[in-house]
Structure formats: C-alpha cells, structure tokens
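In practice, a research group might receive sequence data for several interacting partners and want a quick structural hypothesis before committing to experiments. The following worked case mirrors that situation: the sequences arrive first, and a predicted assembly follows.
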Amino acid sequence: MTSSQKLQVAVIGASGYGGAELVRLLAGHPQAEVALATASGERAGAKISDLFPSLRGICDVACEEFDLERIASTCDFAFLALPHGKAMEIVPPLLERGIKVCDLGADFRLRDVAVYQEWYKLPHSACSTLQEAVYGLPEWNREPIKKARLVANPGCYPTSAILALAPLVAADIIERDSIIVDSASGTSGAGRSSFGLGMHHPEVSGDYKAYNVGSHRHTPEIEQALNDASGKTAAPLHITFTAHLLPIARGILSTSYATLRQPLDTASVQRVIAERYTAEPFVRVHPAGELPQIKHIVGSNFCDIGVKVDTRTNRVIVISAEDNLVKGAAGQAIQNMNLMCGFEETTSLHGAPVFP
Amino acid sequence: MTSSQKLQVAVIGASGYGGAELVRLLAGHPQAEVALATASGERAGAKISDLFPSLRGICDVACEEFDLERIASTCDFAFLALPHGKAMEIVPPLLERGIKVCDLGADFRLRDVAVYQEWYKLPHSACSTLQEAVYGLPEWNREPIKKARLVANPGCYPTSAILALAPLVAADIIERDSIIVDSASGTSGAGRSSFGLGMHHPEVSGDYKAYNVGSHRHTPEIEQALNDASGKTAAPLHITFTAHLLPIARGILSTSYATLRQPLDTASVQRVIAERYTAEPFVRVHPAGELPQIKHIVGSNFCDIGVKVDTRTNRVIVISAEDNLVKGAAGQAIQNMNLMCGFEETTSLHGAPVFP
Amino acid sequence: MTSSQKLQVAVIGASGYGGAELVRLLAGHPQAEVALATASGERAGAKISDLFPSLRGICDVACEEFDLERIASTCDFAFLALPHGKAMEIVPPLLERGIKVCDLGADFRLRDVAVYQEWYKLPHSACSTLQEAVYGLPEWNREPIKKARLVANPGCYPTSAILALAPLVAADIIERDSIIVDSASGTSGAGRSSFGLGMHHPEVSGDYKAYNVGSHRHTPEIEQALNDASGKTAAPLHITFTAHLLPIARGILSTSYATLRQPLDTASVQRVIAERYTAEPFVRVHPAGELPQIKHIVGSNFCDIGVKVDTRTNRVIVISAEDNLVKGAAGQAIQNMNLMCGFEETTSLHGAPVFP
Amino acid sequence: MTSSQKLQVAVIGASGYGGAELVRLLAGHPQAEVALATASGERAGAKISDLFPSLRGICDVACEEFDLERIASTCDFAFLALPHGKAMEIVPPLLERGIKVCDLGADFRLRDVAVYQEWYKLPHSACSTLQEAVYGLPEWNREPIKKARLVANPGCYPTSAILALAPLVAADIIERDSIIVDSASGTSGAGRSSFGLGMHHPEVSGDYKAYNVGSHRHTPEIEQALNDASGKTAAPLHITFTAHLLPIARGILSTSYATLRQPLDTASVQRVIAERYTAEPFVRVHPAGELPQIKHIVGSNFCDIGVKVDTRTNRVIVISAEDNLVKGAAGQAIQNMNLMCGFEETTSLHGAPVFP
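A structural hypothesis for the assembly, expressed as tokens:
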C-alpha cells in the first residue's frame, strides 16, 4: 500500500500529550498516516517534532491553525484532542463533510445532556450529534463502534474503572450502590499546558494527594457505563470516585471496592472477570493471587486487572492498571479508528510495555 | 542540665530507618540523649554515623550487640525498633530492671493474643506483660501513656487511619461496617534491610501498586482502636484496609471512606474532627474545602486531616497525611517518651516540615 | 528572652522557596523571629501558612506589600529573596535606615559592575553600595561578615563549587585554568513561580538535562571566589561550569575536575581539604575513599565533600553535596545573620539531614 | 514468512533487564524470534512472562538452564546477557557450532587482554576468539560487523560517550588528553539482581551520587574506541570518566568536555558531528543551540547529540542522551544482529521514544 492509499488522518490538537501519543502510535501504522495536525496560538506553524523533540525524525508534519475546509479536502478521519466545549463545535461540520471522528475529549461521552451540563457547567450545543455518538470502549461496545461515524473515546480513569467493574455489575454479583473507585494517576493526565503550582515539579515530586474529591467529572461517565453493563438503567447506581495525583508521568491504577451480594471467594470472582475478557487482546486478567502494577503496562495498550476478595467484610477489591495516554487515551482511540475503518483492531498497538 | 543529668536512652535496633529517625530527633532533645545503640550482625561495632552518613557529626555512638545487663546499668529508657517477635522476648526483663520501654514494633499493640497470633502467625510469649502495655496514640490515650511503663507505639498506617476516623466513630455519625481505608506509603516503610525486587529502585521508580490486599497486619490494629473509640466493643466493627506502595521515600496518605448514618455536609463533619483535635499540637485539621498532601508534612510530627462529604452517595471521605517515620514511628515514639517521662510533650518535635 | 527582645526580621520575598525556607529555619531560632514578610501581587495579604500549608501552625504572619518605612519602623534585619535587579533598588534605603541586610539574590555578589552587567544584562544602579557588600561564605569570609551591614549570600551552585575547590586553589596544587565544574540541582532551585514546560512535572519526572551550558550566571561568581582564594587576582582563572536539572526537588551535587600541578594521591588531597575545614561546623569532609551524596544532606546546612585522584590522568575529582535551599540559600543566610548579629553561628541550623 | 523460516534466536541470560529488553524488541521483529531463553538458579523453569509480567501475552517462552547442544540444535543466533567472565566460556563452543553471537557483556570488548585483565581482575580464557570479535558500534564499524560471527556489543556509557566524541577525535579538532566524560545513568543499568543498599528504593529516590570514580570499567572501552577513531593508536589518549546514579529507571546522559585545538564556534563543531552522522538512522544531532535530554529518547534506539562551545575557556561540551537498555544495550544488539544476518538494519527498532 503506498502512502497515498493510506487513511489520511488529522490530529486536531496535536500539541498536547494525547496528540503526541497519537502521532507516536500512528507512526507505526501501516494503513494510516498523519496527514494534518493542528495547534493553536504560538504553536501553530511549529513542526510536531519541534513541539516534541522525542518525535524528531518520526513526524515532521507542521501544525496548522484549524481550518475545516482544508481538513475536509485532505483527510478521511479526524482525532480530536481538545479541551471540553471545543469538540462540540467542530464535530457536526466534520461529520457533514464525510469525515469520521474519534473525539478524545468529554463532549460526546455522556448521553444525557443534562448530566453533561451539570458536571461540565456548559450548555451542549450539539445535542442531535450527541445522539449518534458511540461510547468507544471496544470491550463493551465493539459492534456499534464498527458502524459509528462518531466515537467518544472514554476518559482515562473511566476506562480503568469500567473494565474492572463492568463484569461484576453485568454478572449482578455486587451491591449496586456499594461501589467506591479509588484511583491514582500520573501527571501527564493533566495535559501539557496546565502550568501552575499543581503541576510544578518541586511540588509534585515526592508528593501524593487527592483532588476534585466528590466532584470529579469522570464520575458520571463511570456510572453511565456501569449502568449500561447492568442492564438496569431504570434504577441507576451511583458511585464514589476519588482521584489522586501520583508523582510519576504515566499510568493509572484504580482500586475499586464493592460489597458482594453473596459470599464468593477470590477464584470465583476472578473467573467472572477472566471469562468476560478471554478473547480481548488488550485486557490481561491476572490469575487469582496476582495483582497488576502500573510499571507493567506503561507504554502499551494493555489494561491489567487483578482481584481479591476480603472475606472478613465480604467486599471484593478489583485493581486495574493502564497507561493513561495509551489505553486511557490515544491507544484506545486508534483501537476505535481501526474498528471504524475496518482495519485489524490491534494494528500499531502491539508495542510491549516499556519495563522497567 | 549537664549531659549526665539527661535521660539516658537506648535505641535497640538502631540500624533501621526507625532507629535512625529516633537518633535524628533525639539529637535535638535537651533532656534526653542516646546513651547506647544496638545493631546485630555485621552492623554491630559500626558507628551510627557509619551506617547513616547523614548523621555524621550528629551521633557517633557505636552500635553494640544487645546486652540486657549493660542496658540496665546504663539506661533509663529504651526504644525498641525490631522485627515483630523480638520485642516480646526482651521487654519483660527490661521492665523488671526498671527501664521504661516504648516499642515501635507490633508485639504489644494488639490486646487480644488470639488476634495477634492469627495475623502474625506467631505465639505470643509475653502475655502478662501485654496486659499492661498502653497503646501509644497520645491524642486518644494521653493519660494512660503518662503512667505507663510500656507503650506500644502505633503502626504507621494505623496512626493515619485512626486519627482520621476515630472522631467519626466516637461521634457515632458513620455506619460502623462501612469503613474502607485506602492508604499509600513511601518505601521507607518497608525498612532498610528488605532487599529484593519489591524495593529494587528500577522496579519501584515510576510504579504504583497495592500489596497485602485483604491481609495487611495493620487491619486489626485499626479495628481495635476504632472499636475503643466507639465504646461499643461488644459488637466490634470490621474494616477493609488496602495498602499501596508509592514511588517516594517518605510519607503516608490515607483516604478513608465511610457511609454517614444521617446526611451531613462537609462543614459539619469537618467540625466534628476539628473540635476533637483543637488542643492537639500535632494534628492539623484543614478547613472545609482544603485537603492535606504528603509533601506538606514530610520531616515533621504532624498528621494533617481534611474531609469531604460526597452528598450523592452519602459517604464521607477523610484524608490524612503523616510522615510514616515521624508521626508514624519515631516522632510519635518520642512524643510518648516525653509523656512517660514528664517532659513537655512536644520537646524536640517542633521541626517544621521540609518543603518542597 | 521575651519575644520583644528578639531580633525583628523581615523576609522580603516570602512567597518563594527561599523565603519559606527562611521562615522554616527561623521558627527554631531563639533570638530572632519573623516580624514582617512581603509578597507581591495577589499573594500579598495571604498568610505565609496559606502560601505554604506546610507552615500552618508554625508561621501565620500575613504577607504585605513592600513598604520601606514600615520595615524600617518594625525590623532590625532584612533578608531579601527577590529576582535580580530588585534588591539593588531597596538595599541602599534599607541600609540608610539602619537595617542590616542579607541579600539572597545576585545583585551584590559580583564586585565588578562590568561583570555583573555582562552576565545579567542589566545596569547596576547601586554601585557604591556594592563596594561595601561582603560575600557571605562564612568559611572563607567570616571576619568581614561579622562587621558587615550588607552581606551578599552566595548562589547555590557557587557555594558547593567554591567550598570544594577553594582549598585546592589556595594551596596552589591545581592548574588554574583546568577547572571544570559539572553540577546537578533539584528543581526547587528554579523557584516557585517559574511555571512552564521546563518545570512541568510530566516533562521533568524521569528526565535529566543540562541547561544554560556555557552561559550560566553562576560562572563568574565561582571564578571571583576562587580568584580571591588564590590570592592571584592579577591573572584571573576561568572555569567551565555546566548545570544540570535533576528530577528531584532538593539538593545539589557538584563534580569538579582539575589537573594537579604535581602528582598527589587521594589521601594527600583529602588532607588539604580536611585540614582547611577542620573547625567548620557545616562542612563535612569525607575520609579518603568515601564520597558524598545528596540524600545525606537534604534538609540540613551541611556541605559534604569527598575527593578522588585519577592517577591515570593526574586529575583530581572533588565532589560536594549540599541542600540548595539550606546551605545553598536560606541556611547560609541565617548563618550570616548569626555572624552579623553576634549570635552563635550555628543557632537554629543544627537540624540533622532528613534521611531517607 | 512462516515462523519456522524466521531466524531462531537464543537469549542467554533472559532474567535480567537486558534480556527482557531483547525479548520486548524481538517481539516486533518480522524475521527473527525468540526460540529459546536461559536463566539460572530458581529462575530456570519460569516463563519469561512470569519473570516479567509486562511481557505477559507477548512472550511466554519458558527459561531453561543453559545447554550448549540444545542451543546448537535449535538456534541460529545467540544473544548473551551475562555477568562478565561467563561469556568467554561459552562463546567459543557456540561459534564452533555455527551459531552467530552478539555478546552484551564486557568479555570481548577490549582487544588488549592485558587491559581486560587489569580492569576486570580476571584472566581471559578465550584470547584467540577475542581476536575475531568485532566491536559492535555500527556507526563506526558497520562493515566489519556485517561480516562478523562474534560481535561485542558496546557498554551503555561508552556508546553515549563514543558517539559524542569520536567525530571530534577523528576530525582532530580537540586536545587528545583533555577529555573528561561526566555521565549519569538510570538505575536499570545496575541490573535486576543487584540487591543492596545501593539500589534500595528509599536510598536512591531523591538522591544523586557519583560511583566508581576514577575506576569505572567503561573507561578503557571509551579510550580504545576513541583511539581507533583518531587513527593514532601509537600514542593512545587517556580520559577521565565519572559515572553518576540518577534516581530514574532508564536513560543515560553524558556531558563530555574537551579543549579545542583551535578556536571554533558552536556551529562549526556542530557541523563536524552532524555531517558525520547525516546518514545514520539512530543518531539525531541537534541543531546548534539545542541540547538533548533523557526524556526524549526513553524507550527508543536513538542517541541524541548536542554541542556547545564555551568560548571563554575554549572548551567544547558535547551532550549525548540514549536509553541505556536500548541503544546502550538490547537495541544496539538487535541492530548488530540485523547487520550480521543481512536484515534491514533498523528492523524492529523503529519504536518512537515514549514521552512523557
């Protein structure tokens, strides 16, 4: 396949970590290539490899200001890696011009506009488009993704939490309102332009803290997906979700707690999860007795899951680890692109974790 | 006061991090001094400042093999920083010889011998001595500590969890069996001689993982203290406790969850905790809306506490941060010594956190 | 001594790391206290403990906008922790009003105005005041410091490099133009408000890089002090200095290279350095064969020095470690204050390194 | 090409970081595959993915004890990742059996047996085999590597230092005895079984130190290669080399100093280096004014080089960054395998750096 036969991909918002990770992973894709990249402000005009010297010699595409018609005339597919509120403006015209879209932001993840507006404090200006968006978690939504024009790529925390908990909710073995998700993320999750004390190296190095406690915007996204998995959307469940900031660059580990409806041992619960994911290329369920750790997935598209039952309290503890920029963002987005475009789902996503 | 009038202190087990921290803090104590230190194996004979070059010029006492009579003839007070199972052998004879003891290990923390044996897989050989041991959490046990000959210094995780949750249990505002404690600790908590993959720098750096899930030995210690605080020991509560390993050297942050018996807002719960600790020199309760972080307490004897109510799920989230080697070990031990010996409680513990 | 009898100290520029470290260390000073603190912009009005929650309960002084007359009427002594160019404006009027000053910035370090202007790209507006400024490295300038009204506190890198190399230059055992100083610093050296990619946690974590190569402003400061130590200012030496950024918050390690004029072994060179500092309370010269490391001095006012001769190339390698915020900034400033005010030189600086 | 047509590769010593990295990179190689892996002691029998959970699902080959005949009957090519002294025993019989070898250890790097014995304190038992070994730095030795049966893969530090300095030595623009190499490495360079205080996380985290000063075994290796590049082996040059330990897992940055024979500006020196490497796929020479950093090469086979002339002292400073486990070990080894076996040199080595 020559270059011109490859899927022509636009990376809208290429100056952030999600954009750079898309470029890194697409560099190894035999059927797609970055045809166009956008960045705003002073970053427009710069080559991606100027913004990210790690990519020197790998992608020297120059970033442009966003230009709808130019994208429409050049590209077949667009990834959007933008702050929330931006995607809703440009997705409808992109779709109109026949471009398939995978949006890495939040604008099309929540089906209920009222919920979006409550958590994001923003009116939603593309409600009708929202109706056709497909939530892009392939392990739970593969067929709809294949047919979608617009996929909403899941958030980083939700991916880890949903993959861990949805099998238990689907199997109806946990108390629906007992779920607590306690997550920790590396700092790349905050993005590349969020300068301030909160990301200032001397303050983060050696530190650990919780943030947005009780109000993190990924909460309703996790709830929506678990409610979908449960099949009981009439009586929606609610969860408590706490995010913490780890003094590392990459990776998320979520420790999720739930009360078992009936006593079960670790092996039984492990089996429920393992069987659900037995054919999944990117979910590795650990044998009973082994638990995942961030270091074992960094750089890869894997989500590793392990489980332990605390028989004294009849609670199950599910631990899931993923790279927030890969399975939690760009890797999953490419997995969705592969599905949407009829490519082999795992294409360009085979890279093993970089350990140690 | 001349040197000879100072309290003569033995540090039994001076080659570990707990021992070194005792030495660091005692170096600034005007009424006590390290008269004798012990270490075993090849470390005996070495000066403390050889084992810990950080202490060069600060404490050049040479470590000796443990010798009961020599300690008895030289010292007034002994800190024990030993692996579990060792203290129970030497505490009774030390007490017999009139030496007051603060044990930083686990042997005298659990009043119920059966519980000790279940969790530590070891028979307890000093059951009668155990009866007189006082659990050394000054904020909840100050008067008994003052009169004690033997104080069991709390574990690092328990200190953070109990200080956070005991006010809520005592005020009876949370569902007793709803407590989940999700903690993260720096690696110094594992000690200085625990070599192996689990503490090998390349494996820990950039990593985060849970360990001893559902079986951590600090679980019954937290339960015992919370049951004491509740005053309802007839129907003991049980908790789920999960420990995680942070890729930093020092500090613990515990995120504790509990269901409120009645709806309360953040300010109300904050008030319950703040009022409980209003006179405490080492517990800093944050105003509603602010949460603690590890970096703000490192090197100090403070435990910082913050709280948030998740009104959607009626759960309270209490976050507590402490330095595992100070308030979680050596600092609290010196606080106990000060109480046991009639010194001002805060002596030598004023050092501000080292930030950033 | 009651509070009112204590030296009343102003911290001008209390919102940075240097300012906070002054407050931390002064909190333990029996003869001095923070009477006034300044911060500019939105930080004025905030309590120091709001800016630095680590200092909650330790220093709750509210920051004010800079007001010369108020400082003059309230304080006896002022520490200046300001960006370069600012101190030269306010030092002359402070001195006129009888306030002694220790300036932690660069404005009064270089005696030669032309050199200042060349490296700092700024005209010097206080040339006559500059003449009376004393370079505040007590180990090489103790007596002048005692008599000074104005002390220029050394830079962080220079302190480590000068303490390491000055004894060799003074003893005339190295080739004067052979000196290379290769240093690495933690990120707190960049200050608390230098937001940007260069200090963004995801970019610094796991990284190591050189910066300002061949043009770092600490270069002429090191040269000036070494030329002073050599006593041969007619033929000034020049050095190569390279700074690197470590992915840690605190500490500097300098590896300095020089060619020996005559072959000497490690023990001989070690002796030259050790004898020079034998009476110094804050310089710890390691025995031949042992080398310092950052972790052994963090949080303390020590500078540790070790040496090795590479006999194959006839070069000496001197390694020095210090905490950039203590001996490299606030600790040394207080050491200078102690000397200037007739206090015991080590007062409030006894704190042992916080290890690990 | 079916599996059986692929080059059958043995990884001798698969339980270390070098071995795991070979497996990671070979997993993406279309013309070669891991046919056999060895590990000794209790690790024999374990699957590679048991030893390295990061490789679960990627390589499940079980490790065996070393068995010469089994390797000979199964494999075409062997990588050796063994402690020094071991390879010299097994390389001769492997070669005899027609197996090509790339040795990642030190046994075949130094052509002069006396030098080997002086630095490694070990007699060399395979002197005649040593004569045919080719030093595996493709950028300087490509043609001999293509014809070699035995390639000695360069050390991690030497790769970074030689790539940086050899162009200057070859162009004869620096004083031959003026070279100082000041390097810093992540901790994975120490291997996976080097447990002890030196690699204990609490001691390394937040630290930085020099080690093996004046005696590091990579010194003669750098000297040999630079002497080769200079073409003046009659009067061999000597260097000073200092290694430091960074508190990160991966990456090396070397800051090399040399005195220019004639004054040159940065652009001129940059041109010398850039032109030398213009056709090299894995050496990225930065434009004048830009310098490399570790974070931009982690996970990749790149060595990035930047240069600055310090005109005040007439010294050139060359900075080079590489991943110690990739270009400094396994990546370069596969690059050598590709050359030795007639594959495209860059096969399976295209992976972009994992940033941030």
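Before designing any experiment, note the following. Residues 156-170 of chain C form the longest helix (15 residues). The radius of gyration of chain C is 20 Å.
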